């Protein structure tokens, strides 16, 4: 063995401990260990976000200490690299089986036949969490570790969308303080005018942004928040006012275990009405759900959707939802509205005791003239493989005609349900909205 520091990155499963509530730092020898820097550089290229996360720990005690850190990952991210700095040199990680890596870590920290080295051990805990161990952090010194995360980008509302966990509220044990993340976003395209938003606020590309915890999300309507659940609200506004009897809620929720979820509709008057809950053993929650409304309910005002996660270790996003209200008057047209404050990340349970949740990062995509396509494929085994196809289309593929003449053929046979006919008419309306001078 060389007389240098060694880094071990582990591919394997560490038994889940307590439910993750953002990052948590612990020590083995009761020394006052603090994190003095948490820097995050995000680069975007070819539909993928790469996070380079560099974290530095300082030991103000009198004995060498081990930093043990539970790390909450960005949504959809996987760890793809690890390295540690020893004096002025960086050493890259080695990917190996979990049991083998744990044995090597014990060996290199002095519990074994070899002379003690300076290793770091990174283990996968769950879909959204890893566990990092660094030893030794010497008294009066600092230790720096860097890991790389890779995540596919989502496309929502004309922007690339990604996330990163915010800082957390002050830990009651001040000797184990964590630093707030300092985030820089490098789009990899465009210039200083490229639009980047962090938490809804526009920032300059490559500008440092401190991700402090947000203020608590206000509770909407009756009751109180469940301290054992992670909760998110989304809002839409209905302008048209008249008595309504029923609501249809259409959901598009991306989640790694739908059985954790319960969904409620909150009326303008504050009543919480159960919509649905996910089934155990399934992913995602999609479809339309009927909800009976209280008597003499009016349609006008702010309606909210509450999505609550009641179990830990799984993650997801509320990507879209819409509301259709049935008027009490039989011949009146239905009232429809769609939420525009999306996507919303669903906090993992329980995420209400100091965890800041995730900040939404939105990046303007690069300009293209026509159509770009990318295909990626990974073979995991003889039985399993993964493929991803991305097609990017320019906002306008060609010049719009002037004074166009258009003919639309609709299916209005008896077998066509009213909602299917309404869908056909919406397609016609969408087309004509782009050519307002057309004769149809």
Task: Explain how this protein is built.
A hairpin with a 7-residue loop joins strand 23 and strand 24 (335-338). The protein folds into two domains: 7-210, Sandwich (Immunoglobulin-like), CATH 2.60.40; 230-349, Jelly Rolls (Sandwich). It has helices at 98-108, 418-434; strands spanning 7-13, 24-27, 33-45, 48-59, 65-72, 78-86, 89-97, 120-126, 129-137, 142-152, 154-156, 159-165, 182-186, 196-198, 201-203, 209-210, 230-238, 243-255, 261-266, 272-277, 285-298, 301-309, 316-327, 335-338, 344-346, 358-363, 371-379, 385-393. The protein is mostly beta strands and 440 residues long. The protein is 6% helix and 48% strand. The model is unreliable at 1-20, 111-116 and 351-356 (pLDDT under 50). The chain is built from two helices and 28 strands. The strands form five sheets. It has a twelve-stranded mixed beta sheet. A five-stranded antiparallel beta sheet has the order 11-12-26-14-15, with no helix packed on it. Strands 18, 21, 23, 24 and 25 form a five-stranded antiparallel beta sheet that branches. The protein is globular. The protein starts with 6 loop residues before the first strand and ends in a 6-residue tail after the last helix.
């Amino acid at each position: 063995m060389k007389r240098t520091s060694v880094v071990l990155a582990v591919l394997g499963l560490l038994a889940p401990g307590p439910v993750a509530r953002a990052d948590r730092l612990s020590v083995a020898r009761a020394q006052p260990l603090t994190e003095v820097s948490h820097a995050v550089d995000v680069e975007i290229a070819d539909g993928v976000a790469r996070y380079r996360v560099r974290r530095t720990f300082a030991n103000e005690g009198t004995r060498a200490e081990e930093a043990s850190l539970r790390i909450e990952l960005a949504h959809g991210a996987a760890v793809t690299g690890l390295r540690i700095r020893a004096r002025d040199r960086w050493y890259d990680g080695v990917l190996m089986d979990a049991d083998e890596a744990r044995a090597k870590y014990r060996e290199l920290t002095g519990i074994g036949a070899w002379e003690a080295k300076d290793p770091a051990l990174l283990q996968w805990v769950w879909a959204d969490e890893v566990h990092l161990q660094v030893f030794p952090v010497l008294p009066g010194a600092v230790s720096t570790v860097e890991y790389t995360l890779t995540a596919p980008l989502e496309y929502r509302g004309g922007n690339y969308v990604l996330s990163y966990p915010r800082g957390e509220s002050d830990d009651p044990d001040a000797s184990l303080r964590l630093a707030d993340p300092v985030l820089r976003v490098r789009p990899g395209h465009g210039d200083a005018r490229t639009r980047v938003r962090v938490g809804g606020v526009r920032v300059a590309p490559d500008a440092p942004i401190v991700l402090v915890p947000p203020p608590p999300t206000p509770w909407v309507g009756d009751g109180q928040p469940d301290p054992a659940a992670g909760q998110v609200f989304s809002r839409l506004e209905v302008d048209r006012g008249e008595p309504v009897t029923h609501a249809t809620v259409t959901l598009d929720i991306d989640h790694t275990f739908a059985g954790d979820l319960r969904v409620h509709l909150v009326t303008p008057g504050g009543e919480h009405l159960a919509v649905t809950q996910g089934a155990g053993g399934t992913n995602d929650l999609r479809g339309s759900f009927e909800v009976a409304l209280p008597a003499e309910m009016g349609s006008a005002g702010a309606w909210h959707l509450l999505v609550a996660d009641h179990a830990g270790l799984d993650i997801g996003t509320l990507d879209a939802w819409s509301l259709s209200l049935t008027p009490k008057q039989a011949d009146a047209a239905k009232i429809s509205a769609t939420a525009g404050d999306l996507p919303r990340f669903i906090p993992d349970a329980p995420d209400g005791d100091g965890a800041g949740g995730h900040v939404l990062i939105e990046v303007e995509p690069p300009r293209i003239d026509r159509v770009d396509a990318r295909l990626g494929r990974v073979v995991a085994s003889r039985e399993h493989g993964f493929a991803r196809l991305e097609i990017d289309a320019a906002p306008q593929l060609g010049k719009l005609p002037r004074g166009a003449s258009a003919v639309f053929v609709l299916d209005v046979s008896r077998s066509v349900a009213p909602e299917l006919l309404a869908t056909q008419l919406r397609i016609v309306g969408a087309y004509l909205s782009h050519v307002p001078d057309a004769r149809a």
